[in-house]
Amino acid sequence: MAHYKMLDGNCAAVEAIKMAKVKVVSAYPITPQSTIAEKLSEICENGELEAKYIRVESEHSAMSCAIGAQLTGVRTATATASVGLALMHEVVNVASGCRVPIVMPVVNRSLASPWSLWCDHQDSMAERDSGWLQLYCENVQDVYDTMIMAYRIAEDPRVLTPAMVCLDGFFLSHSMQKVMLPEQKEVDDFIGTYKVKNLHLDPSDPIVIDNLTGSNECTEMKYQQAIGFKNAEDVMEEVFNEFSQKFGRTKAMIEGYNLEEAEALIVCIGSMAGTAKYVSDILRDQGKKVGVLKIVSFRPFPYKKLREIIGNTKKLAVIDRTTGFGGQGAPLWLEVKSALKSDVLVKNYIAGLAGRDVNIETIKNVYTDILEGNDSDDPIWIDCGENVMNIREVLLND
Amino acid sequence: MKRLKFYGLGGQGVVTAGKVLSGAVSIHENKYAITVPAYGHERRGAPVFTDIIVDEKPILVNCFVYEPDVIVVMDDTIIEKGVDISKGKHEDSVLVLNTCSQGTATEYKNTYDFKTVYHVNATQVAMDHIGRGIPNSSILGALSKTGVVSIESVENALIEFFGKKAGEKNAQSARDSYEQTKAI
Questions:
Q1: CA-based nearest distance B107→chain A, Å
Q2: pLDDT tens for residues B16-64?
Q3: What whole-number distance in Å separates Cα of residue A117 and Cα of residue A325?
Q4: Strands, DSSP E only, in chain B?
């Protein structure tokens, strides 16, 4: 019987990996992902998961091993965070270019410097053009569900694209919540056994993979990846619908909350979406017509669905948990802004960097600002402290 | 919705207490709870805290607790380490205090103007039952007196968390603490 279990986000990801019956694990621990690597090692050792655990010396090797192993025709697992993902960057692109549909939890943590252990989305946003699907989670149940669905989406022959399942460091990775876990058989029926498609490693049928490829073919191969992303939208729709029917929890690439006659909407991703929904409920009670759009799939970005779902709302406050240095705005804002017509006010707010709490006050401040119709061009660092230029100021004598 | 803030010292099982409480209300009372963990530069003996939110319905909010309804203090010397346990306290906030002295409990009540303080020598109760002065299970017994969670749910969650043998000792510790807790 499906049953409730208390899990934190990392353990929920491990449960999904276990139930997907991966055969090879190669992971390198890094805060706040560490308990994923540790728990996977433990269940490989005690036989709960029949898989080989490869102890690697870095994230670069972790991904390399996963690619090689999965090409032999098995599901593999790895997971990382922050600078670990940055070190993995080179081979992250190899996985997507070789169309190896690895599903990888990324426990979102700030990128150095300054050194920080805590959550923001700088790490995964820096990989947004690396050819991976990116799905972001709101709560711990979501982590489990999204992992399970990600196998189906990534491995679909129309997609064949690896997927990052992004969960906020600490706010999800270490938050203990009640999670409904299905039976193993239900998961088996839903995701099926892994079958290698197209590129494969087989000693009895040797082929060359990832050889030096000239300009005569590279464009076409990249175009194939672009088509994979395009197809992913339909496949996600199918998988989300089937998941809702089988498991009773509704999923979508983009989820609306309190949309009725909304004057302003916060657009956000990750765990802050829950807090934004909570605050929008409070403000609705006070007569303010505000709601939330939670972006679940950042890659592919559901821009057509976004146009449909906003209806007549003319004010959007996009909260990025990353800096977007030097751009007109940060990554989420850029996507939202370019999807919409110019009669919609789309403001960018930067918040929650390096674990700064995106709390009720912060969300209220964003709603207040957007409702007032602030139309300044620059992103607003809504939770930035005072005397900002004096922080860590070092005065040198000339 | 009830918002709780646990204060204690590294090594006292503050984070574990939060996790066990979450399980007690989520699994054994058919309600919902989330822990909002604060991880930092902890070390044994340094002040730590953890936040828990409890509700009858699924919890949307996922941020730290700023206005706690229940404040749990697992070491009564923590205020000497620069921690303001009254931060965000409101008129109806209650305090659950681990202390060996009724005088200290009264002092907390008067200094911070709590309507009710639930106090027990949770460290001693833990020594009596598990042979170690780790007050995480026993403080949950005292917390049951506030009505946030039932003592039976705490006992069940402890057995689930620590396994049968260690869990039963911890459950006895919680029950004893529950019975010894005084409200002033």
A1: 32
A2: 999 999 999 999 999 999 999 887 766 778 889 999 999 999 999 999 9
A3: 21
A4: 2-9, 32-37, 47-55, 70-73, 94-98, 117-120, 182-183
Q: Which domain holds residue B36?
A: 2-77+90-183
pTM: 0.96
B174: Cβ–Cβ under 8 A, 6 or more apart, which residues? Answer: B137, B138, B140, B141, B144, B151, B154, B155, B158
Provide the 8-state DSSP code for B56. S
- Asked if residue B83 belongs to a domain, the reply is no
Residues of chain A with a CB closer than 8 angstroms to some CB in chain B:
4-6, 32, 117, 138-139, 170-172, 174-178, 271-272, 274-275, 277-278, 281, 357-361
Largest CA distance in chain A: 73
The structural domain count of chain B equals 1
CA nearest B36 in A: which residue?
A175
Tell if the CB–CB gap between A6 and B23 is shorter than 8 Å.
yes
Nearest CB to B62: which of A5, A117, A271?
A271
pLDDT for A376 equals 85
Is B16 in contact with B36 (CB distance < 8 Å)? no
Domains of chain A: 3-199+213-247 (3.40.50.970), 254-381 (3.40.50.920)
Residue B41 placed within a domain: yes
Predicted-assembly ipTM surpassing the 0.90 threshold: yes
Give the residue-averaged pLDDT of A62-72.
98
Spatial distance between the Cα atoms of A277 and A275, rounded to a whole number of angstroms:
5
Average pLDDT over residues B137-151: 97
CB contact under 8 A, B19 and A176: yes
Q: What are A103-151's pLDDT values in tens digits? A: 999 999 999 999 999 999 999 999 999 999 999 999 999 999 999 999 9
* Rg value, chain A, Cα: 21
